[in-house]
Amino acid sequence: MNFRQFALGLTLSFGIAWLAVVVVPFFKLRNPSPVSYTEGIDENTGIYHPKRAGRVTNGYEVYAANGCYQCHTQVVRNTDAGNDLGRPDWGGLKLDADTGKDTRRESNVFDYAGLDFAPIGVARLGPDLMNVGRRIPARIREAAGPDATAGEVDGAARDWLYLHLYNPRLSPELRDWSSCPSYSFLFEEREITGQRSDDALEVATEPGMEIVPGDKARALVSYLMSLKHDNPVPASMDYSPADKKGDTEG
Ligand code: HEC
To answer: Basic and acidic residues composition bias: which ranges (predicted)?
Structure first.
């Protein structure tokens, strides 16, 4: 082999991989055209819209600025690439208490529409957060029983998240073994004036003081609660039909 052949071989082997892995997906995914539901196959009709609610943009910035993506992913992988759908409530809920349906699905490119960067994450030290806004309320509802109203469940889920952000190791019900960092600097300790605030955390303080979430903590929790990526996708985009969902725990 002479040098020319070597250089050509090198360029081809890296060049083809670069085209296939970087260039082609970039042009395919940067401006995806809308996908329609198919009548007769999908329950919905019209065009598929990703849903979004809450103070999403501010919270997304707080999420990014605090490096949550270093340990948390936001992508439910195709079953071919990993058994994310089999992890408890990562891809959605196995049994949605409202609809009685299995809402689990893989992530798709529309789940990141409108964001500057898709927060797919660097490593997975903690659980995937793509559906954390479903999972925490579902857990609370399960513990609270059928009598809890939607408002109560929502409030308790927010309180759980505030405590978790303040210090995940506060109690065994949170996780006293957790290695999720404490973000207590997103909270304020202040003197109680008049009544204790509704959203003061249930933590021990000096007498007469209370700990309340600051603006950033509020935006972040609102963002986390908005992470519900389990709305039904058109069948043409659903690569996770029921029989492919592995059901292993952990
Ligand atoms: C050093 C790695 C690391 C960083 C950085 C990190 N986390 Fe975590 N996180 C974890 C681990 C590990 C767990 C699992 C243990 C637990 O539940 O506390 C976890 C759990 C969680 C949970 C509970 C998820 C569930 O399904 O029960 C939430 C919510 C969460 N983290 C949010 C965040 C947010 C928001 C940030 C950024 C402000 C963040 N984490 C930063 C490691 C991290």
So the answer is: 241-250
